[in-house]
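quick q for whoever's on today - can somebody do inverse folding on this one?? i tried earlier but teh output was garbage lol. tokens:
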């Protein structure tokens, strides 16, 4: 567990505050994530999970606090968020694929247009990644020809091809039909095993327990618990966490 900020710390957040029109959405958030660590963020709707992820790649302005990515201070003046977003992969619940472009074209956009990589090299990377998520034969399909689970796997590949230092996942299976959830969770499990540093927001409790090195439980914009998955799921420290877990208790 990376409590200390050291050379192996990929992401460090200290005293982060974020408000929308004076209404606090994140209060005094501090956490540090080490290389290859998987952090799962749990909490009820509206507790600030998405806002936290969005602050990490500059989709939200923060009021105070420090965010550091592999030693680069992101929260100061003059941060080039376009550059930062190349280092932070993010996958959303809605796939955000361009409908008029094939899976492959969607994936190649970042490496070719943003990173200016050579096409042959980017193509080889795209093929390898598509193969890894079981979608190589779908490379020329348009989003409308893909299932939700397939679209989400393409969205993951589109993020991975940028070689991010960390991957953020915001409830990426929440809109999927049940039979497609597993194939997407499996891709995230594979990524975790391969050593990717990840922050995952999910409501899939069994998956959370299986994939996490660490769980944070949030409520009303605060981190209420920061624990190992084992401890969190067997003996949550707070009444709020116990109540939250009870909602999912039928799964046990
Ligand atoms: P979660 O992802 O945990 O459901 P969010 O991070 O989306 O929660 O939201 C946290 C709080 O911030 C909520 O009270 C929500 O209404 C508020 N909020 C989120 N985005 C905005 C926004 N763009 N403008 C105003 N309020 C927002
Ligand atoms: Mg959310």
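ok took a stab at it. sequence:
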């Amino acid at each position: 567990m990376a409590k200390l900020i050291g050379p192996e710390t990929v992401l460090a957040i200290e005293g982060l505050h974020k408000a929308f029109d004076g209404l606090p959405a994140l209060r005094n958030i501090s956490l540090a994530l080490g290389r290859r660590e998987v952090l799962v963020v749990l909490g009820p709707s509206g507790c600030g999970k998405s806002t936290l992820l969005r602050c990490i790649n500059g989709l939200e302005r923060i009021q105070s606090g420090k965010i550091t990515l592999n030693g680069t201070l992101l929260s100061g003046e003059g941060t080039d968020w376009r550059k930062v977003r190349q280092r932070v992969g993010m996958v959303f619940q809605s796939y955000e694929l361009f409908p008029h472009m094939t899976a492959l074209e969607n994936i190649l956009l970042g490496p070719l247009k943003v990173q200016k990589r050579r096409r042959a090299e980017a193509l080889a990377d795209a093929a390898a990644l598509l193969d890894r998520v079981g979608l190589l034969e779908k490379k020329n399909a348009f989003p409308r020809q893909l299932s939700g689970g397939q679209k989400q796997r393409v969205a993951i590949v589109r993020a991975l091809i940028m070689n991010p230092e960390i991957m953020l996942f915001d409830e990426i299976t929440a809109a999927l039909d049940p039979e497609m959830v597993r194939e997407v969770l499996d891709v995230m499990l594979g990524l975790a095993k391969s050593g990717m540093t990840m922050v995952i927001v999910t409501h899939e409790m069994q998956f959370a327990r299986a994939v996490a090195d660490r769980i944070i439980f949030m409520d009303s914009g605060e981190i209420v618990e920061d624990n190992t998955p084992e401890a969190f799921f067997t003996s949550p420290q707070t009444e709020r966490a116990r109540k939250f877990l009870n909602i999912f208790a039928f799964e046990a």
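fwiw The radius of gyration is 18 Å. also The first strand starts at residue 9 and ends at 20. so keep that in mind when u check it
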